[in-house]
Q: What sequence folds into this?
């Protein structure tokens, strides 16, 4: 089935390569995809900057005048997106939301289907807009299909929409399996760091247990903790500092296997709070595909299935984490890697996208049939003009069914 996709996201395409990039990059192989980022306030008139990424996705960056009120921004965004649709001839696109907050921006469209890919409980994140939950409920009422980024989110959201499906974080196995090559060269900024190395890659924000990291570094000063990723929503001055904690900044997705190859243990040191209650870390299967032993705090979507499947060691207190890392450093990896490979054999972003695409096709078909039925009921039943109206209606609707 052919359609265009207009995606409204709270994430920047070039920020961290994660779920939206994996899914919409695959979608762009068969469809035109316009990925609309959050508006940036600044000087000058409202405009859209549109550029193409290697995956074929059109990244749309809106710029709006500084100082606008919320309703004014919504009005400007509707006008900008209407202009985008006219310029690029977007007819009845699939409107795909990552953030319910952007719901008012695309209300001018008559979509082929409305998709809500709920990858996180955004209302629990630091600095979340006050009206986010209200708009999410409105989005549930408009959506044709809802995807969730994990099992915990599915169990939370399925009560709000009858067509909700769980699609937990998946994996590009071939990419991360490159880290198992012992001959890979250590990146320059990591090469001088001693072993054993405990590594984390991902966004560094309020979801991390910084106290746990500080305690781990203090208890085992010979262990080197490597932190990859941008720091957002928290003050860098609040991060734990020690000679054996190394913040190397954000890295390109293509370079991650080189960094992971040089680690001895991979960490998921998340705090247990409202912001992490529903997360399904993409890094879990990526660490595993890279061949690394993983130690994680007891995040529900890591405990199940990874902890229960003896794929990841679960530990929360400093004593438990130290013991888990020591066990990981001492283990014979042969059995673990066999378990990991059996588990990952059934997991891929390609398969995830295929199953999502089938559900989107179903949603489009259902919406078109409903529209056809509604129009048919409106057709008068008497008179010559009725015949002409019925024929015209069938011709108009038939091309969409």
A:
């Amino acid at each position: 089935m052919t359609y265009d996709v207009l995606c409204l996201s709270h994430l920047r395409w070039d920020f961290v390569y994660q779920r939206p990039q994996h899914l919409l990059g695959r979608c762009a192989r068969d469809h035109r995809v316009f990925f609309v980022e959050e508006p940036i306030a600044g000087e000058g008139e409202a405009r859209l900057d549109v550029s193409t990424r290697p995956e074929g996705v059109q990244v749309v960056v809106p710029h709006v005048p500084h100082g606008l009120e919320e309703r004014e921004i919504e009005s400007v965004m509707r006008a900008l997106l209407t202009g985008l649709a006219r310029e690029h001839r977007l007819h009845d696109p699939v409107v795909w939301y990552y953030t319910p907050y952007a719901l008012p921006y695309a209300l001018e469209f008559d979509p082929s289907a409305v998709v809500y890919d709920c990858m996180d409980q955004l209302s629990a994140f630091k600095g979340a807009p006050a009206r986010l939950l209200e708009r999410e409920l409105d989005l549930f009422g408009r959506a044709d299909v809802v995807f969730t980024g994990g099992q915990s989110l599915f169990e939370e959201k399925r009560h709000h929409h009858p067509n909700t499906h769980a699609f937990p974080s998946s994996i590009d196995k071939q990419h991360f399996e490159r880290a198992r090559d012992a001959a890979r060269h250590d990146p320059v900024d990591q090469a001088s760091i001693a072993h054993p190395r405990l590594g984390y890659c991902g966004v560094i924000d309020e979801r991390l247990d910084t106290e746990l990291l500080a305690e781990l570094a203090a208890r085992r000063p010979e262990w080197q903790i490597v932190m990859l990723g941008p720091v957002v929503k928290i003050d860098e001055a609040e991060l734990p500092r020690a000679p054996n904690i190394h913040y190397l900044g954000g890295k390109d997705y293509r370079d991650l296997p080189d960094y992971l190859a040089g680690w001895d243990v991979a960490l998921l040191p998340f705090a247990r709070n409202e912001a992490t209650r529903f997360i399904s870390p993409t890094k879990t299967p990526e660490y595993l595909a890279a061949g690394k032993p993983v130690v994680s705090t007891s995040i529900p979507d890591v405990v199940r299935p990874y902890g229960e499947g003896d794929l990841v060691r679960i530990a929360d207190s400093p004593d438990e984490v130290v013991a888990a890392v020591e066990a990981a450093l001492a283990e014979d990896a042969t059995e673990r890697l066999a378990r990991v490979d059996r588990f990952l054999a059934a997991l891929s972003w390609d398969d995830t996208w295929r199953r999502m695409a089938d559900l989107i096709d179903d949603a489009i078909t259902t919406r078109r049939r409903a529209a056809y039925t509604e129009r048919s009921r409106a057709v008068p039943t008497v008179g010559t003009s009725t015949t002409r109206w019925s024929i015209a209606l069938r011709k108009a609707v038939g091309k969409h069914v």
Observations:
- Residues 382-401 have pLDDT under 50 and may be disordered.
- The longest helix spans residues 349-377.
